[in-house]
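Quick log. Single chain, no ligands specified.
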Amino acid sequence: MRCPFCGKPETQVAETRVAEDGSFIRRRRRCATCDKRFTTYEHPEVNFPTIVKKDGRRIDYERAKLLASMRLALRKRPVSTEQLDGAVERIEEKLLSQGLREVLSTQIGSLVMRELKKLDKVAYVRFASVYRSFEDIDDFKTLVDEVRK
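-> predicted structure:
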């Protein structure tokens, strides 16, 4: 594997750990040239369903997009990277376990909302306010009241 700092291909694995649920392997690597350390993750290659957007477009699933939207909702909230990664893993497991070739983007939004509600109520409200496209303050108030219960 190439070093992300100097680009040399001579890297050594310093430490290997399997995730608690066994779904991926985390490797700490060290570059033999510049001596810097970095982490890699080894995941099995799987085919995710195609995402069908509201306007009918079909796009490939992108983990980075899912992470980015969740990170935006979780910005400046006390949620660790490990917790976020776990939430994304659970969403991906649900997508794969359904065995569908296509999934509506609204279904993914619902999965994200369910995970955010468990992680952080403020992030849940942030995401929901955009995802549900509130028309007025009463819609927002209803959501906040729902979260308070």
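The beta strands are 11-18, 25-31, 37-42, 50-52, 58-59, 102-104.
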